[in-house]
Amino acid sequence: MRAIFCAYDGSGHLNGPNVWLRRLLPALRTRGIDAQALFLLSGPPEQCPTLQALERAGVPCRAAPPMRTTEERVRWLVLSLMQMQPDVLVPNVVLPAYYAARWARAAGVPTVGVIHSDDPFHHALIERFVCGRPEDQLSALVCVSQSLEAQAHKQALLVSRRPQIVRIPCGVPLPQAQAQPPAERFRMIYVGRLVDEQKRASDVARALVAATRAIPGAEAVMYGEGHARPAIEAMLAQADAPVRLGGALAPEAVQAAMLDAHALVLLSDYEGLPIALMEAMSCGVVPICSPMRSGIAELVTDDVNGMIAPDRAEGFVAKASQLRQDVALWQRMSAVARATIATNYSDQAATMRWAALLGELGRARSPGIISPPVRLDLPHYHDAFAREDQRGPYAVAEALRRARVALGELRRELPHMKLSR
Question: For 2-171+348-394, which CATH superfamily applies?
């Protein structure tokens, strides 16, 4: 049974969904599933970390060079699927793969979407490929958290033929080693993209500066890269506090960095079910999070296996100070955090659930051959897909033509419309 997963990759491109693929696909292959990957690249293949890691792990991969338009990407994906003939297709986070999935479904190939986060892009995936045109609808939808699963069911409430909606957390390995209680020093870490949208990285840096100034023996490291890095570097240079940038961490180096820490700081506006958070808890590192929507409440219970800071200023400093001063509290939370992951969020459990879903869908695959599209009839452009959907000039011209036709019809109707009170 062959399952094709799609992903983006590029020079230094590291994120939670790609870390998840690097673990899941080799694990599925050990369970007899021919898991393969299709990549849309934004850089040279030799500089693409997930592509390289999967190939080293023996996972068959195909990669497209950078392309200018969505139409080019969709056609390349469909042609690749024609050659690979999957039993199940998982578009994952790749918008053109969701568009290409239409031709897979027409050939009887089940398709599986994945909702990783509580953001407009993923909301639009549900709107378009769960609640949209029948020819665009998925066979199944996997949500990584309880809140995302509930949101998907809510959006699909009025859909008569909705896909199967299930929850499968990404899952992380449980290391044998554990983080040790704070003694002379108390290290806080941030692991994620250095961006202000969603992650609030600049606010995290300010919070860490305030905490390290107020708490004896406290220090902090921010791991990651992103657009906010220059501004954060300048801020830290002026602050003269024991907070530094540690650069991007390779997935295989994350665990060692976490085992050397005592608290993971995550003060985002929203998340799905962050892999970095689960990895930290699996190491016994105590999380300090903001009260954001989505999967954090599923993982972290305040003062039980982590802390929920009421704000990114004095409230955060107070929580960090409490954790620093009370070693017994840290030890209790550390043990419960680790047990939370071992019980409900291990990578073995996630692999088993994915294998079961793919096996169920693969057995239901109808006999058929994926054929090339005679004409690309893509869904209308959606604002939430702006970064991923670069339509070609003909598509733009067609959209403008439709807009002019609609405007003309509206103008013709206006003189005949009656104002109502």
Answer: Glycogen Phosphorylase B; (3.40.50.2000)
